[in-house]
Here is the input.
Amino acid sequence: MRAQLVKLLERNQVIEMMYIAKNGEISKRRIKVTKITDDSFSAYCFLKHATRTFIIENVLVIVPVIRKEREVI
Here is the structure.
């Protein structure tokens, strides 16, 4: 998971993430990774409109957000 986060940080890519919060609830977030440490990472959270710190082992799934381009007719 850490290697995937590093790639996403290098690409400056927005991702969708499913995460287990401290209280045990599963949360879905749209984030942009800004910094990675040994066991956690910081990211701008578009849901909370603020920078948040997440524990890497609590991440369930990460999926890059792909913007579809509309075809010009």
Summary: The mean pLDDT is 91. The beta strands are 14-20, 26-36, 40-45, 50-55, 59-64. The longest helix spans residues 2-11.
